[in-house]
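Collaboration report, partner site 2.

Our partner group contributed sequences for two proteins of shared interest, and the home lab folded both. The records are reproduced in the order in which they were received, starting with the first partner submission.
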Amino acid sequence: MPVLHKLVLLEVVSPDHRALVIMLSFISWTFGMCFTALVAWLIPNWQYLALISCLPSLLGFLYWRYLPESPRWLLSKGRLGQCVDILLEIARENGKEGVSRRNLEEELKHLTLTQQEEMPFTQALAYPKLRLRAILVFLMMYSVFVVYGILLLGINVMPSNYFLSHFILSISELPSNFLGWIITHYLGRRFMCWFTYILLAVFSVAATFCTQDEWLLLIVLAMAKLLATQGLYVIFVLASEIFPTPVRTSGIGLTIVFGMLGMVVCPYVLNVGVGSVDAINAMLMAIYYKVVKLWPKTVRQTEGGREERNGRKEGGTK
């Protein structure tokens, strides 16, 4: 489900709104985490909690009725009529006038002849620049998800009140959604990665000196979780921008797979003890701070859909 909703959203929005849409999807995740703490406090039984947590997934079936199919996908499959219907509906909702069905059909037919051919993801990675950036995104996603997963699963910061601990660590993500969007929009993705990783390493080191004071430790870890969420946000933005259109879905999906691999190792890392865990977090962030320095400078890539053209240009030059 986390993969599905992001891919669907990115398919139906323009390139210059991707960062904003990803921010809104992160906000919904944050509120869901906060609500989980409330439900667990009201129903302190893991069996009932597991059952209740599955119920919201049933809302996914509403996609079939209320969420339109991706116009890009319909066009790639030659279903021109359905693609035109959805685009005309979008134009009406956005108050766009002067859009005729005939002109739209002609433009889409021309686009069908000039659009990029579908290619396997492995073929896209044959281009050096794209391959390097994909590897960097995979590594960054893995490292940040390790840190995020440790903070998410380590809810025993306050043994006297697990629910409050989980709620505070969850609500701390909310400011990161807005901060992440503002920083990436005005200062660029590379600066956002650098800024987030260095501060996350600082708070991870600070946490090793706060293990005797649970409230101080909770505050420091809340700041670390805020920064970890910012890191995930900017990586999702990067993944949506670096991959050319024919392989964007595969690229984002594989990026999330690397993140889930990071989550897999989190329980084993937690077994080494609180102080050692924070030291590991700091070491990871220090290493991947070096990785970020390999990333090219970017500022407001989404303006005017420029990254779409750049992605095709770089993808087509070895």
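Second partner submission, folded after the first:
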Amino acid sequence: MVLAATNHPLDLDEAILRRLPQVFENGKPNRGDRAKIPKVILKDERTDDNIDFDHIASLCEGSTGCDLLDVYKQAAYFPVRDFLQYEKNGNIGHGEPFCDMH
């Protein structure tokens, strides 16, 4: 048995397609599923309790789980970038903690 998967089925060579007699299409997740995906992706990560995953899911119509993973990875870098800019401006050691995560 051979199982193949792709995110780009239209790019597959016809010779390959002839050798794969069955095609199963797994569509993109709906809004409810997109809201659940972060709970799986981020289960071992420390996150803010106030993140509205349902709202984010509503903004990401047509996105796959992989697309959402990329969104959350990019979002994770924003505090790092902000901190580096804060440090670059000479603010280290002056005042309150930069990020209050509990």
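Feedback sent to the partner group on the second submission included the following. Residues 29-88 form a domain with the Helicase, Ruva Protein; domain 3 fold (CATH 1.10.8.60). The chain has a mean pLDDT of 85.
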